[in-house]
């Protein structure tokens, strides 16, 4: 499959069937914590990358083979709003399934009228906001030079006012960077300007592009959550690890595992839960993929992760 992956155990959405609508690795940011990889095409130019008919055909062929599912998510190997066909794709996916459609976006293009219009029929939009000062924005997200954080915050605010679905703002904290009192206070002010349905606060949990992108300790994460709860009008929650799933796969397990870890590194536990198989079966699958040199493993933050080599 070229476009569809998962269902992925998402900490925010439960079990999410992903549709990757931008080529690897096309993004308006080059975040230090990115799990997908280093941005090779840093751009704000929107394009029609693939045939919408081809994407929808693959989606229709696959959707009935998936068991339990909470969301269909447009995201993938970069920033999905860079795809000019995103509005058409949202509408066509909604014609084919009654599952809610979510869009994971970095929010950097929401100030564009055409992007606002194209996203309006989604059920959930999850933009991210890791910084509210230009300096920190540049350090963490390393954006395209034409972008500035004030315009982005204004753009997300304007979109939120007109959007009929839910808008959950994701804030990802990186140790020693945006976890200071000063930065979190600025983020709180921006949250109040945007006025999202809720704020999802998380930290780095998987290996990213830079080895200095490290997680904030659980205690600190909780104290920042308390602080933001006091300062913000919107409810603030911390993103928990994915907890339960039961997916019936009528597809080859090797291929499904490979597809999932090509998009994001996963632990053995993530994979056994996502595919609802016992640990032994998953270990044997991973061993086979290792011998075929299709995957590699590495340790991040004390946990062993597996990731694909065929990118
Ligand atoms: S984390 Fe998201 S926004 Fe940042 S570089 Fe990766 S794909 Fe782009």
Give a quick set of tags describing it.
311 residues; alpha/beta; TIM Barrel; Arc Repressor Mutant, subunit A; eight-stranded mixed sheet; two-stranded parallel ribbon; 10 helices; 12 strands; binds iron/sulfur cluster
Fold and architecture overview:
This protein has helices at 52-63, 86-96, 113-119, 134-141, 149-162, 181-194, 218-231, 253-263, 268-275, 279-291, and strands at residues 4-10, 14-20, 26-27, 41-42, 71-75, 101-105, 124-127, 166-173, 198-203, 236-238, 295-300, 303-308. With 311 residues, the protein is an alpha/beta fold. The chain folds into two domains: 4-238, Aldolase class I (TIM Barrel, Alpha-Beta Barrel), CATH 3.20.20; 253-308, Arc Repressor Mutant, subunit A, CATH 1.10.10.10. It has an eight-stranded mixed beta sheet. A two-stranded parallel sheet has the order 3-4. A two-stranded antiparallel ribbon has the order 11-12. Helix 7 links the parallel strand 9 (198-203) and strand 10. The longest helix is centred in the middle third of the chain and has 14 residues, at 149-162. Iron/sulfur cluster (SF4) binds at residues 27, 29-31, 34, 36, 39, 78-79, 106.
Q: In what order do the strands lie side by side in the largest sheet?
A: 1-2-5-6-7-8-9-10
Largest sheet descriptor: 8 strands, mixed
Strand content: 15-25%
C-alpha-based Rg, rounded: 19 Å
Tally of DSSP helical segments:
10
């Amino acid at each position: 499959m070229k476009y569809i992956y998962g269902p992925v155990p998402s900490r925010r959405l439960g079990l999410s069937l992903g549709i990757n609508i931008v080529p690897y690795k096309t993004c308006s940011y080059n975040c230090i914590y990115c799990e997908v990889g280093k941005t090779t095409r840093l751009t704000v130019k929107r394009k029609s990358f693939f045939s919408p008919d081809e994407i929808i055909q693959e989606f229709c062929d696959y959707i009935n083979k998936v068991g339990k599912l909470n969301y269909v998510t447009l995201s993938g190997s970069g920033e999905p709003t860079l795809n000019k066909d995103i509005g058409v794709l949202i509408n066509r996916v909604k014609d084919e399934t009654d599952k809610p459609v979510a869009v994971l976006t970095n929010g950097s293009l929401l100030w564009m009228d055409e992007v606002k219009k194209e996203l309006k029929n989604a059920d959930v939009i999850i933009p991210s906001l890791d910084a509210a000062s230009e300096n920190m924005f540049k350090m963490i997200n390393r954006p395209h030079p034409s972008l500035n954080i004030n315009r982005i915050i204004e753009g997300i605010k304007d979109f939120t006012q007109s959007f009929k679905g839910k808008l959950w703002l994701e804030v990802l904290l990186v140790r020693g960077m945006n976890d200071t009192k000063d930065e979190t206070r600025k983020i709180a002010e921006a949250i109040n300007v945007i006025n999202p349905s809720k704020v999802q606060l998380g930290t780095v949990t998987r290996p990213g592009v830079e080895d200095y992108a490290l997680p904030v300790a659980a205690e600190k994460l909780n104290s920042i959550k308390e602080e933001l709860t006091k300062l913000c009008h919107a409810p603030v929650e911390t993103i928990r690890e994915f907890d339960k799933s039961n997916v019936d796969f009528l597809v080859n397990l090797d291929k499904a595992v490979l597809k999932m870890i090509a998009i994001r590194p996963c632990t053995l536990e993530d994979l056994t839960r996502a595919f609802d198989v016992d640990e032994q079966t998953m270990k044997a699958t991973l061993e086979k993929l290792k011998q075929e040199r299709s995957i590699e493993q590495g340790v991040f933050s004390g946990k062993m992760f597996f990731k694909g080599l065929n990118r």
